[in-house]
Each structure stands twice: as C-alpha cells, then as structure tokens.
Amino acid sequence: MGENISGLTIGIDEAGRGPLIGDMILAAVVFDQEGIRVLEELKVKDSKDLSPHVRAQLYHPIIRNSIVIATSHITPEEIDSFNLNKLLLMRIIDLLRIISVFIDMTNVTNIIIDEIKGWQKILPREVRKIAPRAKLVVEPRADSKYIVVSAASIVAKYIRDTNLRPARRLFGDFGSGYPSDPRTREWIIAEYEASMDKPPLIVRRTWSTLNSLAPNWFIKKQAKPRDKHVPQKSILDYISLKDQR
C-alpha cells in the first residue's frame, strides 16, 4: 500500500467531514518500521472500507504499536464558524507541534496527509518549520494508498463513533448523521418541531439541508452562531427537556 517507507512516518487523516451531526475528529499517528510491519500483518486499510466491529478490533493494536498518537476534536460550532480546510490546516500544524514534544522531529522521514484543497503552498511551508527533513506527501485518497494514513483514519473514525454513543443516548437515534440518511432527516424534523429556536449542540448549522428541514436553525457560513443570537441547546437544557417528558 503506497510507496516503501523508511524511518519514522506520520500519517494524518480525519473522520466526520461530511455529516450534519457531531464533531469531526483529526488523528495523527506515528510509526516506526516495526509498527508499519504490524499494520501490514493486521491488514489495516481505509476505515471507510471496514465495519464498525472491525475498526474496534483494530483500534487498540494500532494504539499499542504506535510511537505517538495525537487527536483533535473539531466541534460543530467551529465548523460553522470557520473555513473548514483552513481549520484542518491549523489543527494539523497543532498536532505536529504536540507530537514534536514527544519525539525528535528530525527523525521523521515522511509525513503523509490526505489532501486539503486550496492549501498546497502553505501546508509544506508550515510543516517544514516543525519537521525540516521530512518528505511531505499530500494526496487525495491517501487513506486508501498509505497504510499509516489508513491507521489514522481508523483511529479518527473509531473515536468519532465512540463519541456519538452518549450523544445518541442523550438526543435520541439520529441515524448516521449524514444529510442523505432518512433517519437523520426525520430526527431533525422532530427536534425542530419540538424546539424551533434552539438546535441541539451536535447539529452543524451551516449545512444546506437545514435550510429546507429546519430553516430557523440554518445560518450562512460567514455568520458565527453567536452573531445570530440564537442559542443552541446545551446538554443541561436537553436533560431538563427530557425530564419533562
């Protein structure tokens, strides 16, 4: 999978870019050659090609055989407030700085990242400040080409899936969270009818689906939620509402 890689390698990928509901998770994983060999033995591949059960089985071996793993949680409010690709770029640099506290970045041979459109010039410049000797590979579908990025995608997806479990217990069954999912759309309509002016905090309010299903919740990308003076439900608000049912 991908080219032959030597030395320490960092793979970076995200999970949850497209859903209407929940955080996006960014994961950076570091492996030496022995760790990469274990990934190959485990037959690690892109998380989108694996069932939740298989991802859960692979998550802990990936953690055990890594040198360092760092993750970043990007909330719906952040996604609604900023350019998503710029936000990803900033968080990638943050994760690399965190990793640099634990390992000597001059020993990193490769940093492999799934493509971030529009930031092809800025990303290499910022990465070189942290890991000056590393070769940077930024490609579309890197998670299906390079096993370390596949491992990062599994970590990110597993953490996102795990985080959604308490959200489902609290907010109800919202399906996959993708705008195309009928269960997600039904949940949005039901929640909107229950409280038109206060969307649950797990909802991304700039997704165009809301404009037709829950228009009072929808905001344009350039407007931050706090600028609209329309609060989102806090967890305490929602628990109180549940208690009254």
What does this protein structure show overall?
The protein is of the alpha/beta class. It folds into two domains: 8-164, Ribonuclease H-like superfamily/Ribonuclease H (Nucleotidyltransferase, domain 5, 2-Layer Sandwich); 172-243, Ribonuclease hii. Domain 2 (Arc Repressor Mutant, subunit A). The chain is built from ten helices and five strands. The protein has helices at 33-42, 52-64, 76-81, 84-102, 122-130, 142-145, 147-171, 182-194, 209-213, 235-243, and strands at residues 8-15, 24-31, 68-74, 108-114, 135-139. Strands 3-2-1-4-5 form a five-stranded mixed beta sheet. Helix 2 crosses helix 7 (147-171) and helix 4 runs parallel beside helix 5. The longest helix is centred in the middle third of the chain and has 25 residues, at 147-171. The chain is globular, with a radius of gyration of 19 Å. Mean pLDDT is 88; it is low at 1-5, 223-230 and 234-245.
Short description:
With 245 residues, the protein is α/β, with parallel strands linked by helices. It has helices at residues 33-42, 52-64, 76-81, 84-102, 122-130, 142-145, 147-171, 182-194, 209-213, 235-243, and strands at residues 8-15, 24-31, 68-74, 108-114, 135-139.
Indicate the structural class.
alpha/beta
- Helices and strands, in order, run as EEHHEHHEHEHHHHH
Q: What is the general shape? A: globular
- Whole-number tally of structural domains: 2
Amount of helix? 40-55%
- Largest sheet features: 5 strands, mixed
Q: Which architecture of the largest domain does the CATH hierarchy give at level 2?
A: 2-Layer Sandwich
Indicate the CATH class of the largest domain: Alpha Beta
Percent in strands: 5-15%
Q: Output the number of helix runs.
A: 10
- Which fold name corresponds to the CATH topology of the largest domain? Nucleotidyltransferase, domain 5
